[in-house]
Amino acid sequence: MKSFRAFSVFFLAALTAAAQTSTDTATNANTVISTNTVAGTDTVAGASTVTDTNTVDSTNTAVSTDMGTSTNMVTSTNAVAGRPMSLLDCIQESLTHNFDVQIERYNPQIALYVLNATYSGYDPTFNFTGQHSYDNAGPRYVNGQLILGSVSEQNTFNTGLTGGTPWGMSYNLSGNVADSNIGTNNNFGIHNNFGAISLNVTQPLLKNFWIDATRLNIRVAKNRLKYSEQGLRLQLIISVSAVINAYYELIFAQQNVQVQEEALNLSQTQLDQDRQRVKIGTLAILSVQQDESQVAQNQASLIAAQSTLDTAENTLKNLLTDRYSQWHSTDIQPTATLDAPSQSFDLQNSWNAGLNQRPDLLQAKLNVEVQGIQLKYYYNQRFPELNLLGTYGFNGSGGLNSDYNGTFNNFGQGSSPFYSYGAALTFPLSNVGPRNQYKSTKATLQQVLLQLKQFEQNVMVQIDNAVKTAQSKFESVQATRQARIYAEAALDAEQKTYAVGKATTFEVLQYQNSLTTARSAEIRALADYNEALAALAQQEGTTLEQYSVNLQTR
């Protein structure tokens, strides 16, 4: 009887060693076989990940085995097309097809149209009128005397060109000619032709001299164009950062599925071994039930991980395309790896970058600038209107019984000039409106300046937090890597102890769970570190420069 038990212990130890050889074939390997439709290997730099010996290509298999001879296999097959994509590939797709980017891209174009429209204040306006008049008075008596009837006929033409200049002067270049016939009793006896051409100018010297409504609108529109360009740059940074986060979340989700598959394999192997022990009578049925419970829990964890993977992939697809239906069946295969490149952090340099490059902070500075433009305008509006006036022109007359040629000849000869000059002063007695508008704008400028200072301080705090977060995440990578290594060693030791009957099934399962948790924590830390670097670049406003994205709006 003793010899039979000794043989049983020896036989179980051999089975355990074989199982460990099967489940721990690549304990120190650095590659993880892809579990999606396109077979491939994703190298995890700086992290040793146990490789699943059950290679899964296009089919993810969840195994659930009950006591007895039957085995229930639950399989899910994803028949989708694989598409390897690097991070730069994803960024390029988002810059072209992301909805937020496409929507924001219109704003600089709209702002440019608005700027061009403000120059309409300098557009010359041409006018021309022509009129024919006829008047037949007829004979009448006045104070008992007969007044013969009169008849007159006249053709009049007027033209003008009016406009303004960038220095505030307005002008009116006008001309008119008239051809008249006057007679009595329907007989025209006098035929006359005359006209005049002139240039009238008005130049403000105080109010509307260095800035007026047109120049205000132009300067504000230029400012808003720059604002919209920074808004587009901000949206690009937000979208690219979102793509980076989604990309690394997808890698994490894929590798987390692998971790959960490995956990399921470990628990399934433990279940198979313990069934053999139950058959030969060296283990109680309770241990098998614990194993089955662990297998079921790991199946649930795998299902949850696969669901998270699907969600992460859809999140990335939504950022990359404006035609989701075409991407729905595409299985994105990231070509990048989860690693933790060592990076030196210089808080002062990060602050300088953020204070000079962050688009939202530059927009805040543009808001201060536009408030200053408005303050300058309302300061000018407080002054009285003092305008220089000037008119110069020529009269023309073709004489009696002549046509238009005589009048135009007089214009060319300049033989009958006329001119005038002077000044006009308009002084509002109270000037309540402009004075209070100026005070209001000045107070608003002070408010906006304080808001800018607050914004700058917030930016510095955000960058400081981002730097500390990145440093912390890098340290977490090192800690979780060590925790995973220790968990692997602990499980290996516990399995050897269990093989000689000095440990329980419950204890082995606990070590398996600890290893699974450590593996998930390690890849989570790697993903968090890369996302923290992206967040730091976003806070600095250097995301586009880091990925060589050039913004050209005009």
Provide a descriptive summary of the structure in words.
The chain is of the alpha+beta class and 554 residues long. Helices cover 56% and strands 22% of the residues. The chain has 2 domains: 2-57 and 72-109 and 222-366 and 449-546, Outer membrane efflux proteins (OEP); 126-165 and 169-207 and 385-426. The chain has a 6-stranded antiparallel β-sheet with strand order 6-9-10-11-13-14. Strands 1-2 form a two-stranded antiparallel sheet. A two-stranded antiparallel ribbon has the order 3-4. It is elongated and about 155 Å long.
Secondary structure: elements and pairs:
Elements: H1 2-23, E1 31-33, E2 41-43, E3 59-65, E4 71-77, E5 81-85, H2 87-97, H3 99-118, E6 125-136, E7 140-142, E8 145-147, E9 150-164, E10 170-184, E11 187-204, H4 213-279, H5 285-320, H6 324-327, E12 330-334, H7 347-357, H8 359-380, E13 385-400, H9 404-413, E14 417-426, H10 432-499, H11 505-540, H12 543-546
Parallel strand pairs: 5-12
Antiparallel strand pairs: 1-2, 3-4, 6-9, 7-8, 9-10, 10-11, 11-13, 13-14
Give a brief outline of the structure:
The chain is 56% helix and 22% strand.
Number of domains: 2
Report how far apart the termini are.
Answer: 92 Å
Shape: elongated
- Taking all residues together, what is the mean pLDDT? 83
CATH class category name of the largest domain: Mainly Alpha
Order of helices and strands: HEEEEEHHEEEEEEHHHEHHEHEHHH
Major beta-sheet overview: 6 strands, antiparallel
Q: Tell me roughly what share of residues is in helical segments.
A: 55-70%
